[in-house]
Every structure is written in C-alpha cells, then in structure tokens.
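User: My advisor, Dr. K., asked me to get a structural model of this assembly before our group meeting. I'm new to this, so sorry if the format is off. These are the inputs:
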Amino acid sequence: MSSAIRVAFRALGANKLRTTLTMLGIIIGVAAVIALMSIGRGAQAQVTAQIQSLGTNLLFIRPGATNQGGVRSAAGQAATLTLEDAAAIATLPNVVATAPEVGTVVQILSQGQNSSTRATGVTDIYSAVRNTNVAQGEWITRQQVDARSLVVVLGDSVAKELFPDSDPVGQTVRMSVGNRTGTNFRIIGVAEAKGGTGFGNQDDQVYLPITTVMARLFAQRTARGAPNVSTVNVQVVSESVMDDTVGQIGDLLRTRHKVTQDDFTIQSQQDFLNTFNQIAGTFTLLLGAIAGISLVVGGIGIMNIMLVSVTERTREIGIRKAVGARRRDILTQFLVEAVVVSVLGGAIGISLGSGLAALISTIQVPGAGGGTSNLQTQVGLDSVLLAFCVSAAVGLFFGIYPATRASRLNPIEALRYE
Amino acid sequence: MSIRIHEVTKTYRMGNIEVHALRGVSLDIRDGELMAIMGPSGSGKSTLMNILGCLDAPTSGSYLLDDEEVARLKDDQLAAVRSRKIGFVFQQFNLLPRTPALEQVELPMVYAGIGDRRKRALAALEAVGLSDRANHKPTEMSGGQQQRVAIARALVNEPSIILADEPTGALDTHTSAEIMAIFQRLNRERGLTVVFVTHEADIAHHTRRIIHLLDGLITSDEPVTDKQFHDAEVRAQRSAASDGLDLTPDSYALTAGVA
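Assistant: The format is fine. Below is the predicted structure of the whole assembly, which you can bring to the meeting.
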C-alpha cells in the first residue's frame, strides 16, 4: 500500500499543474463546506449559550389564540392573562416566583435624540427571575410598582445610544406610544449588558414598572376588564419538576378562566432551545448541502482528469500487466491515485475553510440596537471529519470508473499504444 | 521440458473477416535453450510470442508451461503465470517513466508478492552490469543501459522463459552486440531459457536454434551450426572491441544473489 501511495505521488508529481487544478475543485468544495457550516454552527452555539444563560428552570406563559366567530388569531394575540393569574401561580408549591411582564414599542426622546425601542413592564422580582441585574443605579422596587412611578431602567444599548458620554442615572427621558404626547420618566438604573446579536438584542429595551405601562402607555384589557399581561415568567424550583408544574399551572389557569380549551400556552426554555436547534440544524445542513454541490463538481473534475491519465498511460498499464499485474493491481493503483488527490485536496480545503471561518468571525454585523458585534463561527470536529470523509468518498467514487477502464485494458494492445 | 505447444491456432476477427494468425503450430522448447523465431511481418511470430508469453490465449490447441496447461486460463490467471514464469524484453525497452532502475526491477516482485525485493533487484542489476545505475531514471540512461534494466527486470523473478521481442531493434550495432552478449552469458551461466523474436538473421545466429514462421505455420526448425554461431560471436566481439568494450564471458562479475 505504501508503495502504491508512493507510485501515486510520482504519477501526480509528473504533472503538477494539472494535479493542482484537479485538486482545486475539491479544495474549494471542502473549504466552502467548512466555512459555511461554521457560520451555521456559530450562530447555533451563540444562541444556545444565550438561552441557557437565562436559566433552564424557567417557564413562560403567554395568552393563547382567540377563537371568535370562527376566526382564529395568532397565538399571543388574545388578552387572557392578568396580574392576578400571575399571583395565583406564585402560590403553587413548585413555583419559586412569577414575574409578569407586558411589552410595547415606545418612542424615546432625550437631549434631542428620538429613537424607538421596546418597553417592558416588569415587577421588582423580574430582576431575580430573568437574571437581569443593574450595572448602575437601582432596579425597580416594589413600592415603585405599587405607586405606578414614572421611573425607568435603561437597557445597555439604549443607555449607550442616548447617553454616549454622560451618566444617565438621575436624568430624565420622555417616552410616548403612538401619537400620544409623551411622559417624562426618571432614569433610576442601567441594566447589565446581556449580549446578543441580530437574533434579538436583549440590551435594546427599557424596563418600567408594569403598572405604569398598563396605566400610561399600553392599555390592552381582558374580556373581564382587567389589564392584560403579555407574558408570565415562572421560576420553578428545579428542572426535574418542570413537567409536573406545567400540568399544575394548566389546571389552575383553566379553573380561573373557566374554560375547557386552553386560552394560554406554556413554554419552557428547553422548548425554545429545541425549536431553535431544529431550525439552526436545518439551516446549517442547507448551507453544507449547497457547498457540497461544489464537492461533487470537484469529483467530476477528478474523474475527467483520471480518464485522460488512463489514456495517456495506456502503455504503462501494458508494461505493468506484462510483468504480472492483475486487474485488481491496476484498479488499486488508479483508485489510490484518485483518493490521494481528493484527500490531499480535502486536507488543504479544511485548513483553508478554517482560515475562512476565522476571517468571517472578524466581520462586524449590525446588531438589533444599531450597535455591531462579530459574526460568530465555529468549526466543529464533525464538519471537519464529514468534509474529509466526503472528499475521500468523492475520490473513490469518481475514481472507480477510470480505474476500472484502466484495469480492463488488453495488455497486447496497451503495449502497442503510442 | 520447459514449453510444449501442440497444434496451436489463433484466429482474430476483424469486422467480418477472420484472420488466421496461427494455423496449427507445434513446438517444444527445452530448459536452457537459446533460440530465435524468425519470419516476415504477418507471419504470425508476434502472435506466437504473445501466446508463449501468456499475454493471449490460443483459439485452440494446447500449451504446457512447466507441465501446466495454460491455454484455457482467464486474464488474471494468465497474469499470475506471467508474473512467475515469463520475462519480457521489448524492442522499445518499455520501462516505466520517471521510475528509478531499482524500482523497475522490483516491479515484477511486487506483483508476484515476493519479499526481500531490494537485495534481489540489486543482484539482478549487477548481473547486467548496472549496479552503479540503480537510482537512475530511464531519461538518465542510454538505450543500451535501459535495455539492460529491462533484462534485469525480466530475469529477477527467475522465470522459466525470457521472451525477447526484437531486443536490439532500437539499438546501434555495437550496443546490440553488447545486449546479445548479455543474453548469451545469462543463458550459458545460469541456464536461462531465452527465445528471441526477430527478423534479423545476424541476431538469430547468436542463438542455437532457429524457427521460421510463414503464414501461421512453422516452415523450418533447424539448429544453428557451430560455424554460424562462431562467426556471429566473432563479428560481435570485433565490433565491440572497436568500441573499447570487452565482451568475453568474464567481463561481468556474476554474484550468487540471483541464481
């Protein structure tokens, strides 16, 4: 075998330019697979880390879909959850705390700057449940929630955008929804940066007391007239009782809402993670498949060159047969040659692809809040192994036909070939 | 008896025309014989050589090689017979391109699955006086040297028979004499069976037996007279001497490595 590889290298070395061009097809294919898959994997890893950083013992309850007069709206559109629901859930044995929230889009005016961001109405406990801490100043207190105080905690991006040079804590911003005249809010704190990219920048929002949002900015109400809550964050004692707790909350809400059909949905972090991983996996696979097409094209290049090579070396095949080479010896020789080309190309392609991935990770992409962050890439061992094995298989597959043709040559005619 | 062929025929089809290349050839070749097959082109001598060399199977008839019937073997079985029992020397040398002499000589052993290749290949190169050219590639050698590499390659597996197809056809007179002298010496000292296929009477006279083929049949099978053989020897030596070469039997020291 080692002598077969040496013979293959000699044959390939005899026409270096041609060998290089042949290899180029595989190199480009493998590099494309590695680089594109690294983007998919990078995004997946980043979002997974982000979701997991929020804690895996969280449940999210959202209003369900409405079903009125046979018209079914999208999930989350109905106004069915209330602050009282959140308080009731908090009394369940497995539940540590519930943090209801309500969200709307607001315009912020400050020092002549006008920008749009998401306003999230929260309670004092939200900070603990969602692991959202302040970097400066204070979080919203229980008293401020009860009093519907006009205070705000800025997200990191918002703070940087509105107050690039000064300390925002203690200053005032004006916020409004739609065409309403705005209201002045006192800034009491700035939240810690949570990171995040185009997939949803968690730093591009402001936190207000939930009661203030309901009273001043956003007043969707349930059928029975209570202010509506868009999400109830539920912190569960531990991950192991997650499923039980989902059942208990469901029973409780159905009783409270006097319905048989759920008018709410309960999701866990794990659900998000699973859904996201499924999407990201498909996305990665799609990228890989597109790149894989170029590998096939590279394989056809190998086959083409091998066929030329067999014709060129007809006499050599004749000589080898005359001194006792069997079909299988000739077949092996040409197959080894094809595989050496593709594996060598694969190895170069892997290093080139990894280099490309590193280069891509320096590209700045705009984040949701107007800031930028690096595109994350990740070259997985699995994609390296996959690319390597596929390139070897491509060489083997596209080498079979030329090698078979070589092995079937008639030695007498081959010796006479000029 | 090394080779015994009986009533061998070979018929090719070229389109609708049947070509009878051999029409019933019977021939015995003893171990250690040095002989020549002669005939004009189209006489069937190449076909006979292909069959003797197990490159091709006869249409009918029997071919016993070392008492083994090889006339009905398939491609790969013929390849196995070639690798063990046949050595070829061609007019165009037919060495592998870009490959050093040592590896050329090792090649038949690779396909025959023989070990200790390096040592045996070196001994074979030494037997043809080329041990100092072991690492040279064909492009770095003269025609005579290339043909000597081909001879070393032909004899390295200790075949029952060496078939030489116009082995001096591409060489000048002096080098031809040199190559013929090597064949004679290998035949004399090692008892190697060598069959030449040639149309040059002068080459044929360096052997001990000449067969003439015409239209696929043997027309004569006669020994070379001592006088003819001696005259050819003298001519060769005279030609070589004028070139400063010494072709007396002791000019190449033989080692016991290949016997």
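One thing worth pointing out at the meeting: Chain B has a mean pLDDT of 88.

User: Perfect, thanks a lot.
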